[in-house]
């Protein structure tokens, strides 16, 4: 009798899982896609340092025609030289501030039609909102969010008229602080959460042009920018951010490149990031029916895990405030 009901229960479970899998395979949109980069034009903003430089290096070594954009000409030249030394390939460099739409447009037009646009530039000056200057808040929103609007708007006409018509990609560098709000990151998190809204809406607008959007979510990453950030990061910000391990720029670049080549909308970078992405999948598009299946099955329990993280974080905040008294 017991054997029979176990068999019956297993059958039901299997039947339920398979039906769900088939259903999801049928409905997931947009459809899976591969975005090749060999011999294609990859344009990377913030490509002179950290994650962007590592991305430029890896894309060049995979045979892409790479352009990089940043403000400082000296660092652009240095990046060009280091990529030439490590890959034997030449990258085109463009000096512009992403906050200046005209300058961005000029650079993008000079660079020629883009197949893969990587909006990676970003600034991060963590501080509690109450004491942070309004100028610094605007600085983060302008560079991280408005700057990304400028890049995409400048690049879209050229991307639409691509002669070969292969799949194109717009990859946007967010942060795990763009999936969950973290102490000390009010402006930074807001700029990065903003990118998600931009990306979700944009994907619907450009799917008809065979352009595919990816959003990349790195944890703390060892870069020149991060070294600067660490000089002034509030202690609590560091404590909470340590919930996710830190990575090297090369590792993040590899994840980012693989993610955009696979056409994934959400691109986590480490183990914690994978679960964070599942827990915050929301109404984002999902091309993989297997990932969609995991999202559905894991949703309830991950909400519990997420609440445990909040419990732990609020505990740290309480303890910190207690000690400061
Ligand atoms: N490092 C980390 O811990 C994490 C980083 N990220 C994100 O990854 C991205 C890259 O970060 P990371 O490599 O650490 O940063 P870096 O500070 O090392 O490099 C930033 C790059 O962006 C360029 N840049 C900055 N401001 C502008 C601007 N106004 N116009 C044009 N280019 C600009 C810089 O060049 P120049 O100054 O010459 O203009 C540089 O090339 C950012 O979007 C960041 O938010 C996400 C999660 C973690
Ligand atoms: C349910 C499962 C949860 C899994 C764990 C969640 C861990 C969240 C940690 C968030 C860390 C944010 C780091 C931002 C780094 C960054 O962007 C700055 N260095 C500036 O560049």
From TrEMBL:
Pathway: Sphingolipid metabolism; Lipid metabolism; sphingolipid metabolism. Its EC number is 1.1.1.102. It is found in: Endoplasmic reticulum. The chain crosses the membrane at residues 6-28. InterPro entries: KDSR-like, NAD(P)-bd_dom_sf, Sc_DH/Rdtase_CS, SDR_fam. Pfam families: adh_short. It is an enzyme of class 1 (oxidoreductase). Gene3D superfamilies: NAD(P)-binding Rossmann-like Domain (3.40.50.720). Keywords: Endoplasmic reticulum, Lipid metabolism, Membrane, NADP, Nucleotide-binding, Oxidoreductase, Sphingolipid metabolism, Transmembrane, Transmembrane helix. Its main location: endoplasmic reticulum. PROSITE patterns: ADH_SHORT. This is 3-dehydrosphinganine reductase. It comes from Solanum pennellii. The gene is LOC107023545.
């Amino acid at each position: 009798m017991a054997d029979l009901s176990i068999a019956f229960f297993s059958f039901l479970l299997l039947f339920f899982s398979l039906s769900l899998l088939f259903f999801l395979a049928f409905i997931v949109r947009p459809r899976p896609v591969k975005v090749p980069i060999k011999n294609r034009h990859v344009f990377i903003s913030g490509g002179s340092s950290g994650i962007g430089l590592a991305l430029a290096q890896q894309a060049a070594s995979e045979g892409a025609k790479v352009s990089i954009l940043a403000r400082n000409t000296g660092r652009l030249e240095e990046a060009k030289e280091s990529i030439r030394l490590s890959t034997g390939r030449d990258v085109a460099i463009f000096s512009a501030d992403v906050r200046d739409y005209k300058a961005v447009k000029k650079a993008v037009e000079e660079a020629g039609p883009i197949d893969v646009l990587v909006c990676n530039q970003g600034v991060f000056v963590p501080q509690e909102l109450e004491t942070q200057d309004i100028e610094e808040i605007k600085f983060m929103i302008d560079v991280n969010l408005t700057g990304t609007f400028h890049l995409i708007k400048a690049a879209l006409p050229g991307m639409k008229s691509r002669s070969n018509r292969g799949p194109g990609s717009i990859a946007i560098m967010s942060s795990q602080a763009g999936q969950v709000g973290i102490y000390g990151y009010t402006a930074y998190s807001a700029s990065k959460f903003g990118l998600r809204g931009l990306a979700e809406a944009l994907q619907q607008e450009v799917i008809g042009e065979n352009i595919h959007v990816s959003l990349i979510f790195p944890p703390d990453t060892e870069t020149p920018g991060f070294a600067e950030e660490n000089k002034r990061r509030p202690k609590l910000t560091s404590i909470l951010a340590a919930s996710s391990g830190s990575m090297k720029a090369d590792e993040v670049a590899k994840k980012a490149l693989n993610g955009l080549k696979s056409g994934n909308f959400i691109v986590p970078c480490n183990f914690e990031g994978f679960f964070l992405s599942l827990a915050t999948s929301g109404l984002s598009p999902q091309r993989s029916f297997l990932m969609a299946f995991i999202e559905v099955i894991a949703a309830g329990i991950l909400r519990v895990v997420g609440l445990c993280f909040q419990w732990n974080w609020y505990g740290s905040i309480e303890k910190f405030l207690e000690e400061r008294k």
